[in-house]
Amino acid sequence: MADATIIDGKAFAAGLRARVAEGVTALKASHGVTPGLAVVLVGEDPASQVYVRSKERALVELGMNSFDHHEPADMGEADLLALIDRLNADPAVHGILVQLPLPRHIDTQKVLARIVPEKDADGFHVVNAGLLATGSPGAIVPCTPLGSLLLIRDTLGRDLKGKRALVLGRSNIVGKPMAQLLLQADCTVTIAHSRTADLPGECRRADILVAAVGRPEMVRGDWIKPGATVIDVGINRVPAAEPGKTRLVGDVAFDEAVKVAGAITPVPGGVGPMTIACLMLNTLAAACRAAGAPVPA
Ligand code: NDP
């Protein structure tokens, strides 16, 4: 059997970003509105700083406003909530992103719940989760699952009905919304997690396998149905062959899986670039809704 098609998330994300940039230009021209995202970072977690910088860079590249709030690690919860209140009330801010994880002394759920749902660019608010779960219009969908769905559709076509999908992981930010999206697309969806009996057997039944567990190369080649579409959400840093160096791997053993799957996302260069592109899309959509302009499909 030939090796799987490698799904080029980087190239797809570049195309999506170009479409978002066009949407930004059109919104400025038609309504005089520049989409703006407030990016809130509390503390100095190095990985978070990298993520935040790439988000801020993308905003500027696409012609949007980036309102950067880099706060000290000892910022109090009340002060953070007051900042969210100010951003909620600011008409130039169409989306608010609070980079996670927050320092331990801050209640993450309380902070996320304080963002008005219309500005919840990450789609983590319970109102948006509820809109997605009920298939209601206007839900802001979390960026990583949204990006994953776009890659699946680009690979398999828009019609996914009847396909067996297995989502490995049940977090609120990836696994659960991913399962909701696939269900809405008329897939037959199974959600697997750390208590699932016979994980390899569950995976082997899937036409579409989305792995979001955070365990390096846990999904082996012989867990995959021949010809399946494999979306590897995992980002895990592991020691490289060269002493003192590290490298990124996914949740899927790529070298094995590529020999069995029909199509597979690499790590890096698969789902990762889609996450930021979808954040840009969510910000543009929020700005369009606020301005009463048509929301890009
Ligand atoms: P969480 O840690 O919140 O969730 C992990 C899920 O995997 C849980 O549901 C857990 O099950 C399940 N799990 C853990 N170990 C096992 C196991 N041995 N067998 C079966 N299931 C298991 O992670 P996230 O959802 O936040 O992220 C998942 C991965 O995706 C991470 O590698 C993360 O870095 C990556 N990620 C990548 C993004 C991107 O842009 N590409 C964005 C967001 C995340 P249980 O609920 O039973 O504990």
What can be said about this structure in brief?
The protein has 297 residues and is an alpha/beta fold. It has helices at residues 9-31, 46-61, 77-89, 108-114, 126-133, 143-156, 175-184, 199-204, 254-257, 271-291; strands at 5-6, 36-42, 65-71, 95-98, 164-168, 188-192, 208-211, 229-232, 236-239, 246-249, 263-264.
Write the layout of secondary structure elements.
Blueprint: E1 5-6, H1 9-31, E2 36-42, H2 46-61, E3 65-71, H3 77-89, E4 95-98, H4 108-114, H5 126-133, H6 143-156, E5 164-168, H7 175-184, E6 188-192, H8 199-204, E7 208-211, E8 229-232, E9 236-239, E10 246-249, H9 254-257, E11 263-264, H10 271-291
Parallel strand pairs: 1-11, 2-3, 2-4, 5-6, 5-7, 7-8, 8-11
Antiparallel strand pairs: 9-10
Helix pairs in contact: 1-10, 2-10, 6-7, 6-10
NADPH dihydro-nicotinamide-adenine-dinucleotide phosphate (NDP) is lined by residues 144, 169-171, 173-175, 193-195, 199, 212-215, 233-236, 271-272, 275.
Structural write-up:
The protein has 297 residues and is of the alpha/beta class. The chain folds into two domains: 33-118, 3-Layer(aba) Sandwich (Rossmann fold), CATH 3.40.50.10860; 142-272, NAD(P)-binding Rossmann-like Domain (Rossmann fold, 3-Layer(aba) Sandwich), CATH 3.40.50. Helix content is 41%, strand content 16%. It is built from ten helices and eleven strands. It has a six-stranded parallel sheet. Helix 7 links the parallel strand 5 and strand 6. Helix 1 runs parallel beside helix 10, helix 6 crosses helix 7 (175-184) and helix 6 (143-156) crosses helix 10 (271-291). The structure holds NADPH dihydro-nicotinamide-adenine-dinucleotide phosphate (NDP). NADPH dihydro-nicotinamide-adenine-dinucleotide phosphate (NDP) is lined by residues 144, 169-171, 173-175, 193-195, 199, 212-215, 233-236, 271-272, 275.
